[in-house]
């Protein structure tokens, strides 16, 4: 097969700037805060999801209130594929909207590119990981009673899990580390830390789904403990690694000195 | 040959195999001749393409030709796409997931452009009915070709549904102008394997934008470009076989040659997406199906 030189000469090892331009301010959503979709989904999430849960009825009620036609529901779901296990592409979009907007809401005041006053309005000291983690859980309080169906939708194996649910969880834990005082490393611990925080977050959400205590107090206790355990585990690992490295070097030095002596 | 047909006893069912295979164009010519001759009862014999047949047999023969062409169309689609076109259409309908929800206030107004055969139009209405118990939404099936529309009507009649139904209207219209369709009147605009054949695709998209209500959706199923070079090599070879298959199965090489060429000429998905955006649609996107052989494009009028 003969390829034109244009294709052969294309640099494949280096992505260009255009490929990385973020086209939409609420990436991965393909619409901005002034769009029709945002208006409908925002209204649904704030008014009707606490009432109906993550369901088509909530979206339809919202569209009725805003005086929009029945095609809006198809328009909302256009970016998702239907699947046997999921109810509707529009509901999947609603779930995605919930995840993305809550993640942005968490760091709006901490990100100079999004903070209303720019760089000057950013606080001098970033919050702790624990504070940020709890703040994200607090954002789930209005929909607390509907968490079980939400989590089940997110955990069904399939395209949605791979393309939306897991990447969004990863982006959340990445934001939690990046916008907090948490120390970050540039080795494999970068991944390990994010994976551990993701696990802690999911288990806290699962706890929250079953929590009947006042204002979800027990969830916050659980989250605190879980996060503490994860941090402690990291410390154990670091200490063990440090000790092993020390032992290895000592052994090498010992062997060297013994060999020199002959 | 002519005499054989004329002297055939009345009880012998005219077999389509006894007739030379014809192209669709010829068959359509025959159909129009049949209508003309039907008005004049005094003539005992009439034309059937290049042959002369008894008038009483004419209608049956025309009917046979049409059912033959229609069934060949289905078989050809199955052969060419290895049956995958059914999955694409199913996916298209399920992904759109349109219909009046039980707690919605107003029914939906669909328009299916270049949808003469009616499979997408009826599929959408069936989906709405089975999933949402929606028996109110309306459908305009629009095609530039009256014969293709007749195929759709025939299909509706055969299935005993959507024929003479006030909800479903068949209209002969040019997709580029849609002059009988009011502006801001439709909720869902679908076009499946049709926009490729528009003379001016951009004009068709602009018209789609015109007829849709704010909040309405443009949804298009069309052939696209294969991304994977390996699959593309196989696909290109397969494209060379298609006209041959067309000549073997449907006795029509040229039409299928045109099909392959029109697929190759159709803009790449990114370019088509920018054309959709140029027409005024927001949140345009596309989903490639089967390695990009085909793609679903959409845009929202806000």
What this model shows, in words?
- Chain A has 262 residues and is mostly helical.
- Chain A has one domain (22-261): Tetracycline Repressor, domain 2, CATH 1.10.357.10.
- Chain A has 10 helices and no strands.
- Chain A has helices at 5-9, 36-52, 56-65, 72-76, 89-107, 129-138, 147-155, 159-178, 189-210, 217-261.
- In chain A, α2 (36-52) packs across α3 (56-65), α5 (89-107) runs parallel beside α8 (159-178) and α8 (159-178) packs across α9.
- In chain A, 28% of the residues are buried.
- With 302 residues, chain B is of the alpha/beta class.
- Chain B has 2 domains: 2-68, no CATH class; 84-224 and 266-300, Rossmann fold (3-Layer(aba) Sandwich), CATH 3.40.50.150.
- Chain B is built from 10 helices and 9 strands.
- In chain B, the strands form 2 sheets. In chain B, strands 5-4-3-6-7-9-8 form a 7-stranded mixed beta sheet, with helices on both faces. In chain B, strands 1-2 form a two-stranded antiparallel ribbon.
- In chain B, β8 and β9 form a beta hairpin.
- In chain B, α3 packs antiparallel against α8, α4 (84-96) crosses α5 (119-132) and α8 packs antiparallel against α9 (253-265).
- Chain B starts with a helix and ends with a strand.
- Chain A binds chain B through residues 1, 30-31, 35-37, 56-57, 60-61, 63-64, 68-75, 77-82, 88-90, and chain B through 91, 94-101, 103-108, 187-188, 213-217, 219, 229, 233, 282-283, 285, 287, 298, 300, 302.
């Amino acid at each position: 097969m003969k390829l034109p030189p244009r294709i052969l000469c294309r640099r494949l090892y280096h992505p260009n700037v255009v490929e990385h331009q973020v086209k939409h301010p609420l990436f991965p959503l393909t619409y901005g805060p002034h769009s029709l979709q945002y208006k409908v989904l925002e209204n649904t999430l704030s008014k009707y999801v606490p009432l109906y849960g993550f369901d088509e009825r909530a979206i339809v009620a919202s569209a009725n209130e805003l005086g929009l036609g029945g095609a809006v529901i198809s328009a909302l779901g256009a970016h998702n594929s239907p699947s046997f296990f999921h109810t509707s592409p529009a509901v999947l979009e609603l779930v995605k909207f919930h995840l993305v907007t809550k993640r942005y809401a968490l760091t709006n005041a901490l990100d100079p590119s999004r903070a209303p006053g720019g760089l000057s309005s950013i606080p001098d000291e970033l919050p702790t990981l624990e504070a940020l983690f709890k703040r994200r859980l607090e954002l789930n309080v209005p929909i607390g009673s509907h968490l079980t169906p939400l989590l089940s939708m997110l955990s069904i194996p399939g395209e949605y899990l791979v393309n939306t649910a897991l990447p969004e969880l990863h982006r959340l834990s990445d934001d939690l580390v990046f916008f907090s005082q948490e120390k970050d490393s540039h080795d494999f611990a970068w991944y390990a830390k994010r994976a551990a925080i993701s696990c802690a977050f999911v288990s806290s959400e699962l706890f929250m789904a079953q929590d009947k205590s006042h204002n979800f107090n027990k969830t916050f206790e659980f989250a605190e403990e879980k996060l503490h355990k994860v941090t402690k585990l990291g410390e154990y690992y670091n200490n063990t690694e440090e000790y092993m490295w020390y032992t290895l070097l000592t052994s090498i030095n010992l062997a060297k000195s013994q060999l020199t002596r002959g | 040959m002519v005499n054989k047909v004329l002297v055939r006893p009345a009880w012998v069912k005219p077999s389509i195999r006894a007739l030379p295979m014809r192209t669709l164009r010829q068959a359509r010519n025959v159909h129009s001749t049949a209508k003309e001759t039907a008005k004049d009862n005094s003539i005992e014999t009439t034309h059937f393409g290049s042959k002369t047949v008894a008038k009483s047999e004419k209608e049956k023969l025309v009917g046979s030709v049409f059912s033959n062409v229609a069934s060949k169309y289905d078989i050809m689609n199955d052969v060419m796409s290895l049956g995958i076109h059914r999955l694409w259409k199913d996916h298209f309908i399920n992904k759109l997931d349109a219909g009046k929800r039980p707690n919605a206030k107003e029914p939906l107004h669909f328009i299916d452009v270049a949808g003469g055969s009616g499979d997408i139009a009826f599929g959408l209405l069936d989906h709405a009915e089975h999933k949402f118990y929606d028996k109110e939404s309306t459908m305009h099936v629009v095609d530039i070709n009256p014969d293709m529309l007749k195929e759709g009507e025939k299909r509706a009649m055969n299935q005993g549904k959507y024929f003479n139904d006030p909800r479903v209207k068949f209209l002969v219209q040019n997709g580029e102008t849609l002059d009988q369709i009011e502006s801001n009147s439709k909720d869902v605009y679908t076009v499946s394997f049709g926009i490729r054949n528009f003379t001016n695709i951009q004009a068709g998209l602009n018209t789609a934008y015109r007829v849709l209500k704010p909040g309405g959706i443009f949804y298009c199923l069309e052939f696209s470009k294969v991304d994977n070079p390996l699959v593309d090599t196989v696909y290109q070879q397969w494209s060379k076989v298609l006209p041959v298959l067309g000549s073997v199965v449907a006795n029509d090489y040229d039409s299928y040659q045109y099909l392959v060429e029109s697929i190759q000429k159709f803009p790449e998905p990114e370019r088509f997406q920018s054309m959709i955006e140029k027409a005024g649609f927001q949140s345009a996107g596309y989903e490639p199906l089967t390695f990009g052989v085909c793609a679903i494009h959409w845009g929202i009028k806000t």
